[in-house]
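#onboarding

Welcome to the new folks! Below is a worked example of what a typical request in this channel looks like: someone posts a single protein sequence, and someone else replies with the predicted structure as tokens. Don't worry about understanding the tokens yet, we'll cover that in week two.

Example request:
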Amino acid sequence: MTTMAVLSRGRALAFLAVMGPGLITGFAGNDAGGVTTYTSVGAHYGFSMLWLLLLSTIGLIVIQEMCARMGAVTGKGLSDLIRESFGVRWTMVAMVALLIANGSNVVAEFAGIAASLQLLNVPRSISAPIVALILWSVVVFFDYRTVERTLLILVLAYVAYPISAFIVQPDWGAVARGFVIPHIPTEQAALVAALALVGTTITPYMQFYLQASIVDKGIDLDAYGLARIDVISGAVLTGVNAFFMIVVAGAVLFPPGVVVSTAEDAAKALGPLAGPNATLLFGIGLFGASMLAAAVMPLSTAYAVTEAFGWESGISKRFREAPIFMGLFTFLIAGGAALVAFTNLPLIPLIVLSQDVNGLLLPVVLFFVLRLANDRVLMGHHANGPLARTLGIGVAALASVLSLALVAVSLLP
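Example response:
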């Protein structure tokens, strides 16, 4: 074996050792709300908003890289840095907002799980508790490495979307034009769809989870070069999967011949139009997306709150070693599953509401991320340079304006 081959093999093994946080965080962003949003955009507007998805994905890459870099440089989570840099009062504001947003999001993920399994005639009173028990057991009884591998397995469910796209055989020329020709229809509903597309691509909880998992896995500056590849790959693949969701819905369901408000609607409609395999694959994708996010979101919340107040945290710790971390994770999992399983709350409005709450929290989180990543006292020569600072401000301004506008438009008659 040549020296070059040995070096390449060693680098590949080193990458596998740090791989995980970026991929898991990125794919978890395509949760039940994301699948619903992208499907609805494709069904109602075809490929015309693909260019906007491209811009959103670039923005996600910029923000995710900043958070991962902060974790590797400081060895601390985002909420820990917020407390140290901005004080307890601002930390309380951020944590209360995060609890409200993530609480609604956890319910939305279990709504997505229930909706996907209802395609197989499994009632939500059965599906939600069983999935909750499985997720809770994996996190509470196993270490970080086992949990990470389990979450990476769930990522494989996203293969359903590109396979579905090739089953339906879209007009790839029209798809390419949607990428390069900026266009948004002028009606108000199209504006809401455009705002939702951007708002669901960059979600607040992803930043907390990514930075915390970088720290929990022990990734430092020496390993960050390879971890950065993982982070950027996760963000790119997230955009790629969102692309295939829009393409499938745009190819089969546009112009709308059926009412499509949800991913479940789309999955059912794909059956008679593209065959039962398309329905099954789309349902599998929705289930995997919701299940992955249903694990990541409570973990993100538990990490953020315990770090913010200096309590013990970490997946590898026992319940008695990190009681608040594990207790908060348990409360969110049990509460989200119970609300979906044992109440008559409408599933899809819950998912849509969670996106609006994300929109309110996003500007606050991006403000903290940019201030911290630009701080040379905190980050040293690893602080944002002129290009990263400019891109970050642009992303934050665009995402914040669009997310707040989405919330405002949603509240208006």
